[in-house]
Amino acid sequence: MNISNYYWYFSGVLTPKFCDDVIEYAKSQKEVMARTGGYGDRKLKKEEVLDLKRKRNSDLVWLNDTWIYKELHPYIHAANKNSGWNFEWDRSESCQFTKYKLNQYYDWHCDSWDKPYQNPGPDFGRVRKLSMTCQLTDGSEYQGGELEFDFRNYDPHLRNKKTHIIQAKEILPKGSIVVFPSFVWHRVKPVTKGTRYSLVMWNLGYPFK
Questions:
Q1: Helix (H) or strand (E) holding 108
Q2: Higher-confidence position of 121 and 37
Q3: What pLDDT sits at residue 3?
Q4: CB-based contacts of 93, cutoff 8 Å, min separation 6
Q5: 54 Cβ neighbours under 8 A, 6+ residues apart
Q6: CB 3.0-4.6 Å disulfide test: which of 78, 113, 194, 200 passes with 96?
């Protein structure tokens, strides 16, 4: 798919109070080890945990509260329009509150799947189209933990360049939001000091035609 914008950002648009409220609320909920799609919800063996942490090492809490969606949805719609993507979407998955502590990270991945969801329920037949990351902590509160994108497969002008990785520096201020197509590859580099809190949300629609 040819697109002219690979991500769209809003710098420091959410209030510190909203960010702090999300952090405080998430800390009161059950925390689980972050997984990738192939592991499901089953209990993992020791070797599976080690294998998983080579790809992704973080802790998270699932949130699906109306007050959070109400705050974030306008920015998803605005980014979708202003970027020129105009993807059709009609539903959001649960929000993922993610905590990256010292040496935690998430290696290269994309959020979309090769097939629509098949489990019975409201997500059935839909795919991830728009991903969102909300910066809940200011970039001055931690080191490392950079959100980076790899656009080499989408922009022919970058394929022969040595540097094809772009860091989303625009979202370092607390309360910043970045929205991007779910098929774009990205990563969170290891945190080297402090703790990075973020909120991730995937927005669904029926498959692209």
A1: strand 105-109
A2: 121
A3: 75
A4: 123, 128, 201, 202, 203, 204
A5: 107
A6: 200
Q: Find how far residue 122's CA is from the centre of its chain.
A: 21
Tokens of 91: 């539903």
Predicted TM-score of the model (pTM): 0.87
Q: What is the pLDDT of residue 64?
A: 95
Nearest in space to 147 (alpha carbons), one of 100, 115, 114: 100
Contact (Cβ atoms closer than 8 angstroms) between residue 100 and residue 196: yes
Cα–Cα distances in angstroms (integers) from residue 156 to residues 188, 199, 207, in the given order: 24, 31, 25
Helix (H) or strand (E) holding 73, with range, is helix 66-82
According to DSSP, the residues that pair with 185 across neighbouring strands are 150
Q: Which two tokens stand for residue 20?
A: 């702090």
Judge contact between 68 and 19, C-beta under 8 A. no
